[in-house]
């Protein structure tokens, strides 16, 4: 029962259930490595300087200007549902910058992260189909919205599950080895539910999800 109490305390602090994720792949290295356990907080809590609107999320670009950083780089690392699909595997990547609906964001993008595209017409999700965050795994070669990593449209605020706030190295190996059976194919920085127990569950383990960063 002590584990249930700890789980409820973590939930009260984070506002997210489950409040922990275990990193399962390498797209966020070296900031997050396979087996790290990550504490997740609801995105509106403890918003950093330069957060976009009422989202509570600070982008990489805004973090450069304000001095705000998480996991050794500017901006927040967010957990989100790709393309807003609640049945899909969640993703944990860094929010890079914000785009408005219809925006030609090619000129705002880092040319190193758009592959072979030389203009908006050649860039996936450009012009932006809707407003949202452009995201990227720290160790990936390009933006998710440019068909690298997660392959998702700009991330709407409603798709964001939470923000990564704290890393406990290697502790997630326990969940990865015993909590789930790893599927044969994984997206970069995707997440897999370990258990669907609610916060008032009598399960003796602290619920978490495994994430392949």
Automatic annotation (TrEMBL):
One of its GO terms (biological process) is signal peptide processing. It comes from the Archaea. It comes from Haladaptatus litoreus. One of its GO terms (cellular component) is membrane. Its main location: membrane. The keyword Lipid metabolism does not apply. It is found in: Membrane. Keywords: Membrane, Transmembrane, Transmembrane helix. The keyword Transmembrane helix applies. GO terms for molecular function: serine-type endopeptidase activity. Residues 193-213 have a biased composition (Polar residues). InterPro entries: LexA/Signal_pep-like_sf, Peptidase_S26, Peptidase_S26B. This is Signal peptidase, endoplasmic reticulum-type. Residues 191-213 are annotated as: Disordered.
């Amino acid at each position: 029962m002590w584990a249930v109490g700890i789980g409820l305390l973590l939930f009260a602090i984070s506002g997210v259930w489950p409040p922990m994720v275990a990193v399962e792949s390498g797209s966020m290295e070296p900031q997050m490595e396979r087996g790290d356990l990550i504490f997740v907080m609801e995105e509106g809590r403890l918003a950093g300087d330069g957060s976009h609107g009422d989202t509570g999320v600070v982008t990489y670009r805004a973090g450069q200007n304000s001095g705000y950083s998480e996991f050794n780089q500017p901006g927040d690392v967010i957990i989100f549902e790709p393309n807003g699909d609640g049945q899909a595997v969640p993703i944990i990547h860094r929010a890079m910058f914000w785009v408005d609906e219809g925006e030609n964001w090619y000129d705002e993008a880092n040319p190193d992260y758009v592959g072979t595209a030389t203009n908006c017409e050649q860039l996936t999700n450009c012009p932006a189909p809707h407003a949202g965050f452009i995201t990227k795994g720290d160790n990936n070669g390009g933006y998710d919205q440019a068909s690298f990593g997660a392959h998702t449209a700009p991330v709407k605020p409603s798709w964001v599950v939470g923000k990564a706030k704290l890393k406990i190295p290697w502790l997630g190996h326990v969940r990865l080895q015993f909590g789930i059976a790893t599927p044969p194919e994984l997206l970069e920085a995707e997440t897999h539910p370990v258990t669907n127990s609610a916060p008032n569950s009598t399960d003796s383990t602290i619920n978490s999800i495994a994430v392949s960063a």
